[in-house]
Amino acid sequence: MSTGTFITRTDKGTSNNVACLTTVKRNSFYMPNLDQVHTLIQTYSPKIYIHPDEDYLPSSVTWFFTNGALLYNKDDESNPTPVYPTGSNLPQGGSNDGSYWLDLPMDKTSRERVERGDIGSASAYVHIKPMFGGTYTDIAMWLFYPFNGGARATVGMFNISLGKTGEHVGDWEHLTLRISNFNGKLKKAYFSQHSGGVWVHAPNLEFQDGNKFVGYASLHGHANYPHAGLVLQGNGLIGIRNMKPIRVISFGTSEKVTQLFQEII
Questions:
Q1: Is the dihedral of CA 93, 168, 148, 224 positive or negative?
Q2: Distance CA 210, CA 157 (A)
Q3: Enclosing domain of residue 85
């Protein structure tokens, strides 16, 4: 049986002739070293396309902290604390008990500026982890958006703004690459989508510039999808809109297209 699969039986037989291997000790022998990880990222790192009407762009976490992010404590809500550039004054450990939260600057001008993000400072935060006993490596590539915009709904032929519904400060999204440690090939990629996501096998991905696959971030919500277009969260003709940009490459490289579309590598 392949790793990550299982079998079921519907008969009432008592025999059990299926032999399974189980990992009793983490095996890091086949895990890539740091230089090899850099090579894998350079080879497979995705291109993420952002909708031309996107108002809330990504930034680095440091940019968010140094441009007015505030730390609130429910025991003293009237006196928020500016977050240090390194984040060293943030609460550490424990559980999410609602005692602390982050928010944007208080004054309107600064708040709107931080909401819009700063694509020039945007960085990918990489998390490397072994999978299936070290036979695969997962490379999770995280992007940070200071603000997640409000949702819009589609009802039949009509689009409806849901106001502040869905808005929140601090939006983390990621694309995860699953790579074989035996041959270095990309097996599949995971696209984060709101509270869940989807795995897509390599043959079903879109690729540009060799082995770099493509992801499309939805308008305002930043959920990642493997193909451009409209996806509705709901049933039939009613649902929450996840609008993704039309693929840039189909329009060539004119100056107009370059101005409309923004790309993070």
A1: positive
A2: 39
A3: 71-103
Confidence of residue 179 (pLDDT cuts 50, 70, 90): very high
158 and 39 co-located in one domain: yes
In a domain, 146, yes or no: yes
220 — pLDDT class (breaks 50, 70, 90): confident
In a domain, 92, yes or no: yes
pLDDT band at 5 (very low <50, low <70, confident <90, very high): low
In a domain, 247, yes or no: yes
Domain count, the chain: 2
Beta strands 168-180 and 158-161, pairing class:
unpaired
Tell me, yes or no, whether 191 and 248 share the same domain: yes
One-character DSSP codes across 9-63: --S-------------S---TTS--HHHHHHHHHHHPPEEEE-TT--S--B-HHH
81 and 65 in contact (C-beta within 8 Å)? Answer: no
- 148 and 163 belong to one structural domain: yes
Query: Please, what's the b/e burial string for 119-146 (b: 16 or more CB within 10 A of its CB; e: otherwise)?
Result: eebbebeeeeebbebbebbebbbbbbbb
Q: What is the pLDDT of residues 233-252, one digit of tens each?
A: 444 444 444 444 433 322 22
Burial state string for 223-234 with b = 16 or more CB within 10 A and e = fewer than 16: bbbbebeebebe
Regarding whether 151 and 183 lie in a shared domain, the answer is yes
Helix, strand, or coil (residue 255): helix
